[in-house]
């Protein structure tokens, strides 16, 4: 669980940093990176919780 928290914090910082870079530079690549990081974070969370749910159902 500690690993998941660290990953979540890093993804959150990455999204916030990319969004801040986009606000400062108005370069569209930073906004695209922020959306991709957010998408990766959501998918990672869904996979993780799906595995937890399967473990609970199997055990």
Structure report:
This protein is an all-alpha fold and 59 residues long. Helix content is 93%, strand content 0%. The chain is elongated and about 50 Å long. The two termini are 19 Å apart.
Quick tags:
single chain, 59 residues, mainly alpha, 93% helix, elongated
**Class of secondary structure makeup:** mainly alpha
Give helix % range. Answer: over 70%
CA radius of gyration: 15 Å
Strand content: under 5%
* Strand segment tally: 0
Tally of individual helices: 2
Described by the principal axes of the CA atoms, the overall outline is: elongated
Question: pLDDT under 50 segments (min length 5)?
Answer: none
User: Mind describing the biggest β-sheet?
Assistant: none
SSE pattern, N- to C-terminal: HH
Mean pLDDT: 94
Total separate domains: 1
How far the N terminus sits from the C terminus, by CA atoms, comes to 19 Å
Summarize the structure.
By secondary structure, the chain is mainly alpha-helical. It contains 2 helices and no strands.
Secondary-structure topology with pairs:
Blueprint: H1 2-25, H2 28-58
Helix pairs in contact: 1-2
């Amino acid at each position: 669980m500690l690993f998941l928290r660290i990953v979540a914090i890093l993804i959150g910082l990455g999204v916030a940093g990319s969004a801040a870079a986009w606000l400062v530079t108005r370069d569209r690549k930073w906004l695209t990176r922020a959306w991709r990081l957010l998408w990766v974070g959501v998918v990672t969370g869904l996979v993780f919780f799906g595995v937890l749910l399967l473990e609970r159902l199997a055990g």
